[in-house]
Amino acid sequence: MAATRSRSKLLWDVISYVVLVGLAFIAIAPIVWTFLTSLKFEEDIVTRTMQYIPSRITFENYVKLWNQSGYPVLVINSLIVTTTTVLLCLLTGTVAAYAFSRFQFKGRTQLMLGYLVVRMFPAVLMIIPLFIIMRQVGLLDSTIGLAIAYTSFLLPLFVWMLKGFFDAAPKELESAARIDGTTRLGAMFMVVIPIARNGLLATCVFVAIAAWNEFLFALMLTTSQGSRTWPVGLQLMVGEFQLPWGMLAAGGMISILPVIVLFAIVQRAMVAGLTAGAVKG
Amino acid sequence: MATLSINSVRKSFGAVEVLNNIDIEVEDGGFLVLLGPSGCGKSTLLAIIAGLENSSGGDILIGDKNVNDVHPKDRNIAMVFQSYALYPTMPVRRNIGFGLEMRKVAPKDREAAVQRAAELLQIEHLLDRKPGQLSGGQRQRVAMGRAIVRNPDLFLFDEPLSNLDAKLRVEMRTEIKRLHDRLGTTTVYVTHDQVEALTLGTKVAVMKGGVIQQLADPETIYDRPANMFVAGFIGSPTMNFLKGTLEQGDGGLVLRHAAGTLALAGLQQDVAGFVGREVTAGIRPEMLDSGDGPASLTGVVDVVEPTGPDTMVIASVGGQLITARLGPKDRPRPGEPLTLTVDTTAINLFDPVSGNRI
Amino acid sequence: MVEARISYPPPLTLWDRINPVRMIGELSETRYWMYLLLIPSALLITAVVIYPTLYGMQMSFREMRLNRPDLGTGWVGLKHYQRMLTDPIFWVSLRNTAVWVTSAIALEFLIGLIAALALNRNLPGSKVLAVLILLPYFLPNVVAGHMWALMLDPRLGVINDLLVKIGWLEGYKAWFADPSTAMAAAIVVEAWHSFPFFTLLILAGLKGIPSDLYKAADIDGAGPFAQLRLITLPMLKTIIAAAVILRVIGLVNSPDLLLILTSGGPGRSTQVLSLYAFQTAYKDFNFGYAGALSVVMFILLMGFAWAYVRLSKVNED
Ligand SMILES: Nc1ncnc2c1ncn2[C@@H]1O[C@H](COP(=O)(O)OP(=O)(O)O)[C@@H](O)[C@H]1O
Ligand SMILES: [Mg+2]
């Protein structure tokens, strides 16, 4: 009996490994393929016999992308938009998450639900009026305007996720700090936020990745090279007939590199925060 | 150091009333224990004293000063929490000194004060560790250090020992008593453990459902409980309740119960008005002894539980179960008849309708 | 015992009286503090979500064509909504949306569940594998779209090459140019991109199931599939419900991936509602009609969410 059980456990372990390795392969195969493509010469990409491993490698796609397509400007714009979005969320969202986590007050549940429902609003329904409003106030086609627009769907997420991390710090700690002589403000900055710093970092990274990746708002709300972000720029490289695959692949690899690095660094806290926010929501 | 007055304090959460007209005075250097089952409002009262919660009515006075509108940071109190609430990001040294740091005490004085508190609690060797690296008992000591270092007007303890194992709990209880004897700081101590209450308190407030059932010194609480709730809550094993009718016998008052009568010669209560009525007699297990006497109960042994220093015998007296604490050598067998002599001076009679002591 | 004398309350210095940090600190001790904390984010959300949404809703009752200023921006009542009833593209989009959402979610859930169950065995090395498996979810739509477009390309796609080599295909196939395969191909890409979301949530749910339950089931002789059906899935009900609803919202609302992969084509075979609304705004500049389409989408989504939550609650009883 015990023998069959351990044999069946072994069998399932083996099956699990096969499944996991297979899925991991499927998950990263497109990334690897794109990377290989980005290292090929154009004539090796468009070839009659498929080259799985490039017979010769080149960085010309990266060089061309960097020098000819204005990609550096796109990346810098994206960096500005991402940073501004994270700052906006940090400044307004941290204190809101703190209030939701720490205090019982009238309308708390409703307000939190409201922050959740906001995520259900169709992007298109907001993009069009945002386009009109931003044009009126002169924020259309500006990195700041785009960042403000991003907070519409990222701030609620930020608040929910961060609230989960704040919840993990016991309330008695603040009571102790207030008796020790801090105000509530002091307790928040000296005791609670230091405890939640990993969570805060993970939440910021999550928002940063989302802002960095965003495409639809950027497509609609930016119109010129001066404020366009990289996803829009990359998409606009796609011509009608001849696709510059090498450059597209290079651009894709450059753009996802920071995402992969950031994700690898904070993935554990980020995964915890994402699930906490979604489970309660 | 200061006195503490709690005057008609009330608290409701929405429609739920959690504290109902609490009135307590604690003298300078006194040790008040708030005792009651979980959920009776002890922590809420403590939080109101600390200023962490607002009361729905009534006044808190520390010294002569009404502190209703004083923030916790300005009340000059110190508190020890059940979970210790040590700041996990700071080393022990900074945890203990945090209150002084917030009050802008010069670093040198602060360091000296932390050192003295640590010596008193024998935790000097832990000063540079983070709370996460400490055992439960060590955390408890650090929490106490954080409280005593500031020389506050008032110490507040919220079930400080309930997260410790049994042996450590007894040790720390002694430690707290020693500290209070040494420092003489007015203290409010919340617990649901009656032994802690009786050993530590100079005054015990027994609470239930947001109402104070009895406020008195420990002996009175133990010997003359104000009602059957207090009587049953205090003491282990719990007090026996024997139902019967109060009658005027030949030699004085007697209690007629299902299995006979019990002479109440030494009774310490004026019960004249209850003659001829139903009463409940509260008899502590240790007021019973095997053998016959002027006042005695006769029954049949049901269960025998030796505990080492004592033998707990549960006997059926006319269908009512009575527990007696007998000597270690006293080992009657189940099914045997048993006669117990009663110390009648220690009997309390309760009105079974209201539950109050007559 | 400690002689660090402190007077209460400490006397205020002049600097204390004008120090802004101290003043905010004092404010934090009042009962209005939590509301003050909420104001900045509430203002921002009102400005970028509530106001634009209301604006968009009223827009759906107006004529608003950016490329036809001659038409003005007057009220047109329910005109846009009436047009929708007779607009064949709307109905095709609606049907495509249903297919797109249900198939993608079914696929994502299945793969996500399998991955989570395998990861939950905590085999050595599964931490690294988990990072790799979760990675696609964090990649941008644009890059995800181009990676797959490259791999499925009719002339140089590696997947075509592999399928021909193992004999499943006669020759290279133009997956996204064929109306019969475009939707399926897009669903595969979407599933690749978002199955980690289910893995993530289900894994969290699995961690919350007490292992005693499985031990008890083992002793009772329940096999792995019986355990999955009788313990795992019922215990995960809430989390699966939450995950499904979040994915439905995401899939219905965002046209990104289809916009990048197919732009709704070929023909209308991958035209979904959100994409149609976006193109009506972005290409035709008919903001009024686009607004009306989004409002209908929003109402359908709310209706679905409500019904779904109700149903999963009823099932629990
Ligand atoms: N913030 C709150 N909101 C609503 N009810 C509360 C709150 N805090 C405590 N209570 C209720 O008040 C009662 C007393 O709680 P507490 O003072 O913590 O009891 P104790 O410390 O005696 O166990 C409990 O019934 C509890 O449910
Ligand atoms: Mg309590």
Structure overview:
The complex is a heterotrimer of chains A (281), B (358) and C (317). Chain A has helices at 2-38, 42-45, 60-68, 71-102, 108-117, 123-137, 143-167, 172-179, 184-195, 197-213, 216-221, 230-236, 245-280. Chain A is mainly α. Chain B has two domains: 4-233, Rossmann fold; 240-350, OB fold (Dihydrolipoamide Acetyltransferase, E2P), CATH 2.40.50.140. Chain B has helices spanning 42-50, 92-102, 107-121, 136-148, 166-183, 194-200, 218-223, 228-233; strands at 4-13, 16-26, 31-35, 57-62, 65-66, 77-80, 154-158, 186-191, 203-208, 211-216, 240-249, 252-257, 260-263, 278-283, 288-290, 296-306, 311-317, 320-326, 337-342, 348-350. In chain B, the strands form four sheets. In chain B, strands 6-7-8-3-9-10 form a six-stranded mixed sheet, with helices on both faces. In chain B, a hairpin with a 4-residue loop joins strand 16 (296-306) and strand 17. Chain C has a single domain, classed as Orthogonal Bundle (MetI-like fold), CATH 1.10.3720.10. The longest helix of chain C is centred in the first third of the chain and has 32 residues, at 88-119. Chain C is globular and about 85 Å long. Chains in contact: A-B, A-C, B-C. The structure holds adenosine-5'-diphosphate (ADP) and magnesium ion. Magnesium ion (MG) is lined by residues 42-43 of chain B.
Q: What descriptors fit this protein?
A:
heterotrimer, A: 281 residues, mainly alpha, MetI-like fold, 78% helix, B: 358 residues, alpha+beta, Rossmann fold, OB fold (Dihydrolipoamide Acetyltransferase, E2P), 2 domains, six-stranded mixed sheet, five-stranded antiparallel sheet, 8 helices, binds adenosine-5'-diphosphate, binds magnesium ion
Short recap of the structure:
The complex is a heterotrimer of chains A (281), B (358) and C (317). Chain B is α+β, with helices and mostly antiparallel strands and 358 residues long. Chain B contains eight helices and 20 strands.
Question: Would you state the CATH class of the largest domain in chain B?
Answer: Alpha Beta
Bin the helical content of chain C. 55-70%
Name the biggest interface: A-C, 98 and 99 residues
Secondary-structure element string of chain C: HHHHHHHHHHHHHHH
Describe the global form of chain B: elongated
How widely separated are the two ends of chain C?
Answer: 61 Å
Question: What is the percentage of strand-forming residues of chain C?
Answer: under 5%
Q: How do the helices and strands follow one another from N- to C-terminus of chain B?
A: EEEHEEEHHHEHEHEEHHEEEEEEEEEE
Annotated CATH homologous superfamily of chain C: MetI-like
Please give the CATH architecture of the largest domain in chain B.
3-Layer(aba) Sandwich
**Tally of helical runs of chain C:** 15
State the share of residues found in helices of chain B, binned by percent: 10-25%
* Main beta-sheet strand count, sense and barrel state of chain C: none
Radius of gyration of chain B (Å):
24 Å
In round numbers, the mean pLDDT of chain C is: 86
User: Which residues of chain B form runs of ≥5 with pLDDT under 50?
Assistant: none
Q: Which structural category fits the helices and strands of chain C?
A: mainly alpha
- Helix-and-strand structural type of chain B: alpha+beta
